[in-house]
Amino acid sequence: MAPADEPVLDSGDDRRNNHSTTSxxxxxxxxxxxxxxxxxxxxxxxxxxxxxxxxxxxxxxxLSTAVFATPRATRKYRLLTDHDRVALVVDNxxxxxxxxxxxxxxxxxxxxxxxxxxxDHAKLxxxxxxxxPQLKPFVEAESCALFEVEILRILHVTRFQEVRQWLPQxx
Length: 171
Fold this sequence. Notes:
By secondary structure, the chain is of the alpha+beta class. The chain is about 25% helix and about 35% strand. The chain has one domain: Roll (Pnp Oxidase, Chain A), CATH 2.30.110.
């Protein structure tokens, strides 16, 4: 994946020295949120418009990547192959009807790439199917593509307007 120039909140240009953005407590909170939610909205863009697509996803334990599947014969697939920058929005609003101040959400931004290597594909597909066993036939279909998103940053929102940023550790 091509490196991306992501703006970072309150840290100037030095991403790795901003300790608040790599907080283990924040990472744990984000992990609980994404583990507890089966679906999110994948945000892509085309030449003229932005698009949102509901997806089933799975995050890596270290939150550095997320994986999802999509049929190749879709607008989503075409947009992903044309423009690799994406955002993935996950929230728990369904657990807090009428309690807006209790809702948590994340927006994970990054770069998506189709997984074509058979070993990587098998490993990532297994992780997705472990979270979503009902998707096994879909994920294994020849017409289905598996995408991995390299996460560049995650914005975590609580209490409707409190925003904290988390960055994956460099590998």
